[in-house]
């Protein structure tokens, strides 16, 4: 008898849970189909608020923009010292990099060519 009552209780709990989930799904779908009723709706309270528009500034002529751009470019040139000549040590470094680029690129070029040769011979087989 004890076993029967425990099974009856678990079956009743399962049926109750299924029923509660079903009711929740029905109500949630009802809320979705009729629109979102939880959404806040704000209506203007005064006639001025209904006709309110944001004033936008008129675009400035291009001559002002060119003047502003020139000022910005002059500022950048001044801050980065672009008017001054390149230091001799920097020139030496640039020249050494130019001279050594061939040494760095040649092994990579040879590796690419070798991989291409291996790939073409593998396709031929």
Q: How would you describe this structure to a colleague?
A:
By secondary structure, the protein is mostly helical. It has a domain at 88-125. It contains 4 helices and no strands. It has helices at 2-33, 47-50, 62-79, 88-124. The longest helix is centred in the last third of the chain and has 37 residues, at 88-124.
Give the topology:
Elements: H1 2-33, H2 47-50, H3 62-79, H4 88-124
Task: Give a short synopsis of this structure.
With 125 residues, this protein is an all-alpha fold. The chain is 73% helix and 0% strand.
Label the structural class. Answer: mainly alpha
DSSP, total strands: 0
Strand content: under 5%
Distance between the termini: 80 Å
What is the C-alpha radius of gyration, as a whole number of Å?
Answer: 39 Å
Report the mean per-residue pLDDT as an integer: 76
Number of helices: 4
Secondary structure: helix percent: over 70%
Low-confidence stretches: none
Question: How would you sum up the global shape?
Answer: flat
Order of helices and strands: HHHH
Largest sheet: none
């Amino acid at each position: 008898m004890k076993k029967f009552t425990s099974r009856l209780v678990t079956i009743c709990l399962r049926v109750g849970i299924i029923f509660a989930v079903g009711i929740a799904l029905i109500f949630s779908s009802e809320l979705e189909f009729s629109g979102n009723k939880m959404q806040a709706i704000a209506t203007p309270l005064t006639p001025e608020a209904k006709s309110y528009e944001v004033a936008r500034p008129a675009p400035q002529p291009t001559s002002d923009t060119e003047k502003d751009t020139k000022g910005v470019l002059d500022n950048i040139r001044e801050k980065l010292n672009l008017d001054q000549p390149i230091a001799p040590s920097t020139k030496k470094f640039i020249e050494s990099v130019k001279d050594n680029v061939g040494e760095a690129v040649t092994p990579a070029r040879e590796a690419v060519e070798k991989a291409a040769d291996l790939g073409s011979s593998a396709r031929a087989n």
